[in-house]
Amino acid sequence: MTFQSCALVLLGGFFGGILRFFVSGFVGRRIGETFPWGTLVVNVSGALVIGALAGLARAQGGIFAGEMFRDLAFVGFLGGYTTVSSFCLQTLNLAIDGQGLPAAMNGILSTGLCIAAVGAGFWSVVRVLA
Q1: Was 91 annotated as part of a binding site?
Q2: Among 16, 61, 87, 126, which has the minimal tally of Cβ within 10 Å of its Cβ?
Q3: pLDDT per residue over 99-114, tens digit each?
């Protein structure tokens, strides 16, 4: 791990975390916060973007396949933007509060939609560029 890699992860994480704060808050204020919609939107959109970037890396190579881009975009920005820890805590809090069905829905929706989004992002880019 080099200083340059650490700086790129730090920079990407800084901007990804700020964007997560705004997107999650915006969604929460618009839809409500009784269900963690903001976290769901952040994680699904992040999965879509990382899938698309992975598709670019595979189809185009070049900068998208480089270590610097990976450190900045994948590890830093998208690592700071998406949030598994918040998803897990929100799901646990729903369960603790006796909201078993919303807790289960959050787990199923988040996992299923994120996997579908990463696949959709990846395959749409690979197919368009192939």
Answers
A1: no
A2: 61
A3: 999 999 999 999 999 9
